[in-house]
Amino acid sequence: xxxxxxxxxEALLVEREVEQFLYYEAELLDNRELHxxxxxxxxxxxxxxxxxxxxxxxxxxxxERGYYFNEDYGSLKARVERFDSEYxxxxxxxxxxxxxxxxxRVTRDDEALAExxxxxxxxxxxxxxxxDSEKHTFFAARREDVLRRRGDTFEIADREIRLDQTVLSTDxxxxxx
Amino acid sequence: MAAGDKPSATEQALQDARDSLDEGFFPLEFFHxxxxxxxxxxxxxxxxxxxxxxxxxxxxxxxxxxxxxxDDAFIFVRDESGEVNLLFDSCRHRGAQVCRAEQxxxxxxxxxxxxxxxxxxxxxxxxxxxxxxxxxLDREEYGLAHVPRLETYEGLVFxxxxxxxxxxxxxxxxxxxxxxxxxxxxxxGMEVIGEPHRWVIDANWxxxxxxxxxxxxHTAWAHGSVLDLELGGExxxxxxxxxxxxxxxxxxxxxxxxxxxxxxxxxFLTYPEEVVEDLFTKEDLSDAQWxxxxxxxxFTGAIxxxxxxxxxxxxxxxxxxxxxxxxxxxxxxxxxxxxxxxxSWGLAPKNAPEEFKERMYKMYTSNFGPTGNFEQDxxxxxxxxTESANGQFAxxxxxxxxxxxxxxxxxxxxLDDEWLGPGFAYSENLEEGGMRLFHEQWYEMLAGNDRTDAxxxxxxxxEDQ
Lengths: 177, 465
Description:
- The structure holds two protein chains of two kinds.
- Helices cover 25% and strands 42% of the residues of chain A.
- Chain A has helices spanning 2-30, 34-38, 73-82; strands at residues 41-53, 61-71, 96-107, 117-129, 136-150, 153-163.
- A six-stranded mixed sheet of chain A has the order 2-1-6-5-4-3.
- In chain A, a hairpin with a 7-residue loop joins strand 1 (41-53) and strand 2 (61-71).
- Chain B starts with 8 loop residues before the first helix and ends in a 19-residue tail after the last helix.
- The longest helix of chain B has 14 residues, at 354-367.
- Chain B is globular and about 80 Å long.
- The chains are: A alpha+beta, B alpha+beta.
């Protein structure tokens, strides 16, 4: 009984740790501290955002070949560093964003995971507003991450962003999700 | 205009704009005008050949995709006999839409309202309780309406809402010579990878049309970040009018392409040697077309009115990785004077190794489409033009945009007398004649004239040349 209780408490603590990391990550991205965010990207990362498909009878289907992002460490780094350029007009001035991370679920005992890894699912809602205007829009997505422990924090070892839109209502995707 | 009528304000403004185009001016306010939008929908998009999709997107019988011409939704579908159809998505009974998904496979489309059912070639197959309810209705007359004209060129499907007019072959004219280079260079042709990217932006469609009709001038400024990061070479992304590369702007039968390349070198858009050796073929190309492909580093271009393409070499997604080519085609679908939907496809040689096709698609998404390192920065600019065009000021001050680059009295520009292809090739890429040509055709169609009235002479070359 007591052992079971301890396991449950341990799970709760892990969930809290994960949530706190996701909130911190969201804050870095909202503040556009992209290099600090990139410090939490593992060097073996695969960062994907597949193209959602819209089908007659099936919900939640994604393209086998089509995507918006399919980045490794090098190409993600290039995307981060591009915004250091004074010519990266899409983010000059920066998009005003607010990320809401909810519905977090943590899986610990998956065979595909290494000892120090967690499988984390979460909902993401991003408010975006741009330029000298009141106009705004949203991205909504389910995220599936593999987070890896690194000291007292985590690094993102794998991320799939399962966007809800099939037709985007933004000029571009010049933010990280 | 009916005889005896005074010209409307719009018609007069159009005529004035046509006159000032000869001086290299075009009014800013035309990038945001409700009346012009309605005219464009009727007289351009109701007449022109508009891109629908590539046959490789619907390879099997029953495969379909919902596609649009202007405000009209169609079902792009391969029927049981393998033929490609374009069916107006509206039940013949009460007009409801019979296709709800973006893409899929089906033998029949069934109307959700009263259950009328159509085969995937459009024929009416079932009308519920017909013998009691519609006993004298001839089913053969009640199939889904086909688009009046549909043509396929190297797998690319184009359609026209007009019953009559120039054939697609006539529409494309000698520009086919250039597009053949892209589509026929690899044995087996090109295919679409995945599904098109779609996104809606608050910009007038003519802004992107301008850009694809030979805006070499913008590249190094708008896309300076790509250069800063060494994701694209100086020869590909660097300032127009500099360097030793073979830079040409080509106008041909109303369509345009700009290229960068190197004379007498084996460039082949930086396709890897094994692809060039195993897959590229002279079989369907002339010697001159082959030479063009061999020397080319990059191509951008547009087919009037709303089809664009980029076939680029020498770019990467990571400065530490090798460069690779990409090939994207796109359409811009006007949704209003200040709104359009962009559709963008990534392609690769059909018979290339899977791994290479994936690399080409990666190059496409890294550079273009909504996440592209190039394209991310274009769209906010086009949006800004549209916003500036909207208010009183553009109109009350009669603000004219300058398209004079390339006029002989303005720029150092010559025709390349020894150019190896059809049309007119300019010796430099500091030139805006392709955009003037676009606006001239736009005018002719809005005025109800023949589009080809615009394509006779290269406007920036003196008569005596």
